[in-house]
Amino acid sequence: MQTNREQWTSKLGFILSAAGSAIGLGALWKMPYVTANAGGGAFFLIFAIFTIFIGLPVLLGEFVIGRRTQSGTILAYQKLAPNTKWSWTGRIGVVTCFFILAFYCVVGGWALLYIWKAVTGALSGLSVDGLAALFGETSNDPLQVIVATVIFIAINWFVLSNGITAGIERANRWMMPVLFLFLLILIVYSLTLPNAMDGVVYFLEPKFADLSADAILQALGQSFFSLAVGVGGMITYASYLKRDVFLPSSALTIALMNLLISLFAGLAIFPAAFSFGIEPQAGPGLLFVVLPAIFNQVPFGIVFLLLFLVLFLFAALTSSFSLFEVPVTAFVENRPELRKRVLFIVVIIVTAMAVPTSLSTGVLADVTLFGKDLFGIADYVASNILLPIGAFLIAIFVGFRMPRQVLWDEITSDGAFGFRLFAAWLLVLKYVCPIAIFFVFLQQLGIL
């Protein structure tokens, strides 16, 4: 183990940071909508089962790779499988992070713009149509979106320049509890509105008749992506982890926190939407059109809208921290004196990708590939192609390439993990997870 390598100061700091990495935009603006329209409680139950029994094993595999090697996602494979092509799995993860950040930073910039608009009163009194028009004007304004995107990147730069403990861990230690607190406040508020329980029923009533094969594949895919596996972020975070942390309990805690946030987001959104008869939707329309329209109709609604926008920003930031950290750690490794220089280069690359992406609904709207604008291209390449490939390779590598004794040592370190449970985990990782990921990959490409 390198003596000059930073480490998380506590298990809690690691869990909050890893959970922040996993809890991203999808949990807040996609998962609730998909759940409500693909089977409600039945979909959420399937999603929870897949998360625990398929997504969690891959997450644990990433933890094993990271802590065992105490290295970033490229060097980790070089250490475990020297003189092989496995290090390309790490390189794919680094490339995936750049593609995700290309659109993630744009959405983070939108959140910053709307926090400012909420504070200045620019959202007050507008109807759904008015808010839709405002979002169109905002996202098409080159100056606004570029400045906001750059500010979001700059926040990441500032936090990551302070390193793992003083930067990422310290930020997550207060951002994650605040995120939970804000969500709880919004849930209590939403449930007090008229007809709130109709929204709860719509969101969580088990509708097994709506649970199609496509919905099941969606739940399966969401179980992987919601845990942020496949990009090497969890390998990177685990590489800063002490030996006395019991990996299975940490992974399970993170998976349960992610499920809880997905549930909380739906309970905050749907009761309020049904209370005012506004049709919920997924994506930017939910955050920047639907929710402002809802909160405009209640006393002090702008305060609660501001809370939601801030927690959305926090979710975006805690995820983007890990996305930036993957290439930074991969290129710095055990030379911490180079961290700020490498971080600056990574920031420049991300900015060069994110700024054109931020203009994809405006001046660069005509720049398309296969019918997708720059934002859509970055999202599709990362989410539909690179992420499934990364998760598939990680499952194969841990299941078939790593020595069983190494896996046993890491999994059972400082905790009780019986042989039968270990054997079941390894069996799922070797055979169930790769097959499941392969089917998700085909579904994402539209083949299934």
UniProtKB/TrEMBL annotation:
One of its GO terms (cellular component) is membrane. It is found in: Membrane. It comes from the Bacteria. It is a multi-pass membrane protein. The chain crosses the membrane at residues 12-29, 41-65, 92-116, 143-162, 174-196, 216-240, 252-278, 298-321, 342-365, 377-400, 421-442. Keywords: Membrane, Transmembrane, Transmembrane helix, Transport. NCBIfam families: Na_transp. PANTHER family: TRANSPORTER. This is Sodium-dependent transporter.
